[in-house]
TrEMBL record:
UniProt domain Acyl-CoA dehydrogenase/oxidase C-terminal: residue ranges: 209-341
Record-given protein name: Acyl-CoA dehydrogenase
Organism: Mycolicibacterium iranicum (Mycobacterium iranicum)
Residue ranges of domain Acyl-CoA dehydrogenase/oxidase N-terminal in the record: 6-100
Record key words, sorted: FAD, Flavoprotein, Oxidoreductase
SUPFAM superfamilies per record: Acyl-CoA dehydrogenase C-terminal domain-like, Acyl-CoA dehydrogenase NM domain-like
Cofactor(s) annotated in UniProt: FAD
Sequence similarity: Belongs to the acyl-CoA dehydrogenase family.
Length: 350
């Protein structure tokens, strides 16, 4: 059985890669913001990323695979566009709630809305009282998925007050904004309550989307390390000829490809397997990418040496983004425990 991207998916990857190259973050002083970031977001809208998870208005099927392909390429270049939060997760929530009008507005770029997570970043916010808006740069509205009885979630949108400077977070390429009820209008229900089974699919897509960002960041880190190893001369020879460096890079490539394999399966599972199986695949991808992402990024910093801990180099930006991504919806320890619970539950039922 062939496992790989179709010609159309590879064309999307190449197109996204070219766009990402044009809006890449090369160092900490190069991170787009304000009007520059808004113009970059317009290009993301033109690419069609916000519509990939909810293209029903165009007569197409939702695609997790296309979504993760685009997210990986954007993360590989450390772009600062809010693709994860506003481009993937917000659309997924709105589509799950049947909020077709809002989905269309997001896809057209007329609505900038950021999903709200719990204060520990481990889940979507349980109530509309407070939380952390993910990828809040340029967003005028925030989106809550409040828990109701029977396992359902009610999606509500609120207009947030003007953004205040709360200081830079750990991830300098992504805006994380604290929102509290006093800073926004009362949330208004959007669409219909999301049934429990559909919510499981939302969770699976959220885990998969973050895993895609992790895979992209580690791919970019490995690109940098390989390039540097082929250029840096020490003791009269390029360091890439040293066995210790070769082993670090080879091990990193194995971890990257393993994470990508898990990611592609999870992305396919979201649209083709029952919700529980898709969630299991999403947890597996997030667990593998969380552990591998940390190792690959740290290996890259070892190869880069002292330059990797300077402000001017992008290595610390990748490490920061990886550490935050690990936290989003839980790192490998959280996922392993959840996977064990799911497996043991299945065994008890059988």
């Amino acid at each position: 059985m062939y496992i790989g991207l179709t010609d159309e998916q590879d064309m999307l990857r190449q197109t996204t890669a070219r766009l990402a190259d044009a809006i890449a973050t090369n160092n900490a002083d190069d991170i787009a913001s304000g009007d520059d970031l808004d113009r970059q977001w317009e290009r993301i809208v033109e690419l069609g990323l916000p519509a990939l998870r909810a293209p029903s208005s165009w007569g197409l099927d939702a695609s997790g695979v296309e979504t993760v392909v685009a997210l990986e390429e954007l993360a590989r270049r450390l772009t600062a566009v809010p693709a994860l939060g506003q481009g993937a997760l917000a659309t997924e929530l709105l589509h799950a709630a049947g909020a077709d009008k809002e989905v269309e507005l997001v896809a057209e770029g007329a609505l900038r809305i950021a999903p709200v997570l719990s204060e520990d970043l481990m889940d979507f916010a349980q109530t509309a009282d407070r939380g952390i808006a993910l990828d809040a740069a340029g967003a005028t509205d925030v989106l809550f998925a409040v828990r109701e009885g029977g396992g359902r979630r009610l999606v509500s949108a609120a207009v947030a007050a003007a953004e205040t400077d709360t200081g830079a977070g750990l991830d300098l390429t992504r805006a994380m904004r604290e929102v509290v009820s006093a800073d926004m209008e009362s949330p208004t229900p959007v669409g219909d309550p999301i049934p429990a089974e559909r919510w499981t699919s939302v969770q699976a897509m959220a885990l998969t989307a973050v895993a895609a960002d992790l895979v992209g960041v580690m791919a970019g880190a490995l690109d940098d390390a390989v390039r540097y190893a082929g250029e840096r001369v020490q003791f009269g020879t390029k360091i890439g000829s040293f066995q210790a460096i070769q082993h670090l890079l080879a091990d990193s490539l194995v971890r990257l490809e393993g994470a990508r394999s898990c990611l592609w399966h999870a992305a396919w599972a979201v649209d083709h397997l029952p919700a529980e199986q898709a969630l299991l695949a999403g947890r597996t991808a997030k667990a593998y990418a969380s552990a591998a992402g940390r190792d690959v990024v740290e290996n890259a910093m070892q190869v880069l040496g002292g330059i990797s801990i300077t402000w001017e180099h992008a290595a610390h930006l990748r490490l920061r983004r990886t550490l935050v991504n690990r936290r989003l919806f839980g790192d490998e320890t959280t996922q392993y425990a959840a996977i064990a619970d799911m497996r043991l539950s299945d065994r008890e039922l059988s």
